[in-house]
Write a structure and sequence with these properties.
Blueprint (H helix, E strand, L loop, with lengths): L5 E4 L3 E8 L11 E9 L1 H11 L4 E8 L2 H13 L6 E4 L5 E7 L5 E6 L8 H6 L1 H5 L3 E5 L4 H13 L3 E5 L16 E2 L3 H8 L6 H13 L4 E5 L5 E5 L3 E4 L12 H14 L4 H15 L12 H14 L2
Parallel strand pairs: 1-4, 1-8, 2-6, 4-5, 8-9, 9-10, 10-11
Antiparallel strand pairs: 2-3, 6-7, 11-12, 12-13
Length: 312
């Protein structure tokens, strides 16, 4: 049994990026300076990141039978992700994201989930053989909630560690926390889930403790340029983010998740995996796009070496 394999259940969207000087106000039109079209979707981004870092990935998803869906399948084959559990649904369009980005890298996103909402419990059942062989099963909230909760419970009952990136943010049923081994909300998601306003390290720690109290084994609350906070039953630790010149933060959270899962699957400790993921996400913000901004494993290793030498 290859416990280095990861199965990710999630969404695929095509991303349409418009970058300009500033974001529009309500009812306002602004002119963009740059347009990029590229693959997206939280689960997809995380799967591609982990695959590019050398992890064997099985991706469970649905795409439309349109050109966007074909583009996604070609991308997965190119980066070495198995497509055997990706269903092509001819009755609906692939997921589509519109991303507006300002000159400082801040963004606004709107998503039409399309085929992603058709992902079913039966789709997950078909992937049980892969999940059982996996070291980790990853989930997000861009699919039907009942399907996601079913997958979390099933993977947990099979003895497979579960990872949840709870985005888009929503309340989690009380009886579902017991099936989540690792949860990774950002500050907004943590605030919505816990009811605690998260705006810094101290409040992130409070939110993490709330999540652990409710049954999660490990909480990792990400804080953008402030880094991340790890909380479990024994520990609360802040991991600062390295300073970089950010131009686009889109997808940085997904790259963090993919890099973290890959590092954990490779045998790195929880703390080292968070440091690795924080470095990968920081590098990604210095580039435009999502898939296009994923650094190589060698880049992350070199970046971390430089950080370590700078701290000695």
């Amino acid at each position: 049994m290859d416990k280095k394999m990861i199965t990710i259940v999630g969404a695929y969207n095509i991303g349409l990026f418009l970058k300009g000087q500033r974001l529009p106000s309500l009812g306002e039109s602004v002119t963009a300076d740059q347009f990029i079209e590229g693959a997206g979707g939280k689960g997809s981004n995380q799967a591609v990141t982990a695959a590019m870092f050398g992890t064997e990935i099985k991706f469970v998803a649905r795409v439309g039978s349109d050109s966007y869906g074909r583009y996604g399948l070609e991308m997965y084959e190119r980066v070495g992700i198995s497509t055997e559990f990706i269903t092509v649904d001819s009755s609906i369009h692939s997921g589509i994201s519109i991303i507006l980005i300002d000159k400082d890298g801040k963004n606004m996103i709107s998503v039409a989930l399309g085929a992603n909402l058709r992902l079913s419990k039966e789709d997950i059942d078909r992937a049980v053989p892969a999940i059982e062989k996996s070291m980790l099963a990853g989930f997000q909230f861009e699919n039907n909630l009942d399907t996601v909760l079913y997958g979390l419970r099933m993977a947990h009952e099979k003895g497979v560690s579960t990872f949840l990136d709870p985005a888009p943010a929503r309340k989690i049923p009380e009886d579902a926390y017991q099936y989540i081994d690792i949860i990774k909300p950002n500050e907004t998601e943590a605030s919505i889930i816990t009811g605690i306003k998260v705006d810094g390290v101290a409040s992130a720690e409070s939110a993490g403790r709330w999540l652990v109290k409710h049954g999660v084994k490990t909480a990792i609350v990400t804080l953008g340029e402030q880094g991340a906070v790890l909380v479990d039953s024994n520990t609360a630790r802040h991991f600062p983010a390295p300073a970089v010149k950010a131009i686009d933060s889109t997808g940085a959270g997904d790259i963090f998740s993919g890099a973290f899962m890959s590092a954990l699957a490779s045998g790195k400790t929880m703390s080292v995996s968070i440091e690795y993921a924080t470095a990968a996400a920081a590098i990604s913000t210095t580039r435009l796009g999502v898939i296009e901004s994923i650094p190589s494993r060698e880049e992350v290793d070199s970046f971390m070496d430089k950080l370590e030498k700078g701290n000695t």
